[in-house]
Specification:
The chain has four helices and no strands. By secondary structure, it is an all-alpha fold. The chain has one domain. Helix 1 runs antiparallel to helix 2, helix 1 crosses helix 4 and helix 2 packs parallel to helix 4. The longest helix has 37 residues. The protein is elongated, with a radius of gyration of 19 Å.
């Protein structure tokens, strides 16, 4: 198995343009990240370009990316393929991490930041608080990923 080579021995990088699971994942991620900018503008009445690369928020772009990848792999390789199984399990791990571990770390950062401010700790930068996702943000990211995975 491994990478397919063209007859002349080159890797055939031009074939990336036809890798639909890859494009489904990228498109889904871009839609999720773009919607964060729009939702921030609507809810907070401000433009925040950092949301295009930021973590946390609605919807979960990590979830959207991995679900689009898994669903697209299922669509092109079969939902009974081992590759789909791997991608789906990978998606579940990412979703659990986003809504569980990274969310807990964000809550801990919030408490530490309050302590830094209250006790005026010198030379201590505030920690990033928006790390994980609520279950709803993960769910919406999953739905977006499924839709994009089926449509691409």
């Amino acid at each position: 198995m491994g990478r397919r080579k063209k007859e002349d021995g080159s890797m055939g990088f031009s074939k990336i343009a036809y890798n639909m699971p890859l494009w489904a994942a990228i498109i889904s991620w871009a839609i999720a990240q773009g919607s964060k900018i729009i939702l921030t503008f609507i809810t907070e009445k401000r433009f925040d370009a950092t949301r295009i690369v930021g973590t946390g928020g609605m919807p979960s772009s990590h979830t959207s990316l991995v679900m689009a990848l898994a669903i697209s792999i299922g669509k092109y390789n079969g939902f009974d393929s081992p590759l789909f199984a791997v991608a789906l399990i990978f998606s579940f791990v990412v979703m659990y991490d986003a809504a569980g571990i990274r969310r807990a770390a964000g809550k801990q950062a919030e408490i530490i930041n309050m302590l830094i401010i209250k006790h005026q700790v010198p030379d201590m930068e505030k920690l990033k608080e928006l790390l994980g996702h609520t279950p709803l943000e993960v769910f919406v990211g999953g739905i977006l990923g499924i839709a994009v995975g089926l449509l691409v």
